Amino acid sequence: MLFSTFFATILTVCWMTQEFFLPDTSALSKHFATVPTPRLCSYFGAVVLPALLTFGVFIPSAYARPRSELVLATSAEDPALQARLVALSPSVDPEEARRVTYIAYTTGLELAHKWRMVRSPTVQSFLINIGLKKGGYCYQFATELLLRLDAEKLKTLELHWAESDPGTDTEHNVIAVTARGQPFEEGIMLDNWREAGHLLWGPLTGDPSHTWQENKAAAARRLHRKAVTADRPKRETTPRK
Question: Which of 44, 84, 103, 159 could be cross-linked to 48 through a Cys-Cys bond (beta carbons 3.0 to 4.6 Å apart)?
Answer without folding.
Answer: 44
